[in-house]
Amino acid sequence: MFRFGTSLFVSILCFAGMSTTMAQSAGQPTDPQIAHIANTAGLIDVEAANQALRKSQNKDVKAFAEVMVRDHEAVNKQVLALLDKLKVMPEDNDTSKSLADAASVKRIERSTLSGAAFDKAYAENEVTYHQTVNSALEKTLIPSAQNRELKSLLQTGLKLFKEHEKHAEKLVDELK
Asked: What domain range includes position 50?
């Protein structure tokens, strides 16, 4: 249990640190970087949800995972459509790489679990992940976005992802 919490904490610090580092050393992230971060975050949550759909037998966990797939895929399609409209390519960056690396570690950790232990780990990770991403949206990504359509899309996503966070918190409580 200590290892799970420790690696999650390190992942969060890494993500928060990357956001702060980008803002301080390289200026604010650019719109192509922001779009890549947002898309990466969505893909990570879809991947985690797909893992839950494969591994969980709990109907509430599966229902939550289905919502994550549906909503995050929809937001990612909107982000990519906007970039296509603007003729802008998403730009990989240290933050998106850090998110992907941390998610890989979490996915591997969850793959060793089953039953109630998996369900609990998935739900708790969803709470923490949404808290982290929502904080980054509020504090770094939305304020840094220059394109008003991208900024608006991120703001809409933030509202939806705050609901995801509440839903995940409720799921954690139900799994106790």
From this structure: 2-23+30-175
